[in-house]
Amino acid sequence: MLLKNCRFLLTQNEKRDILENVDVLIEGSIIKKIGKDLGKHGKNDTDCSRKIVMPGLVNTHTHLGMHSLRGLCDDAELHDWLDIIVKEEKKLSDKQILENTEAGLREAVRFGTTCMYDSYRLAEERARLFERLGMRGCLSSTIREKKDIAASEKFVKSMLARKSSLIKPVVAAHAIFSTDEAILKEVIALSEKYGVRRRLHVGETRKERFDVQQKTGKLPIEYLDSIGFLDEKALLVHAIWITKGEIRLMAKTRTKVSHNPISNMKLASGGVMPLVEMMQEGVTVGLGTDSVVSNNNLDLFEELKVTPLLHKQHRWDPKVITPQDVLDMATINGAKCLGFDDVGSIEVGKNADIITIDLAPHLLPATTKNIVSHIVYSANGNDVCDSVIDGKMVMKDRIIR
Question: Do both 50 and 66 map to the same domain?
Answer without folding.
Answer: no
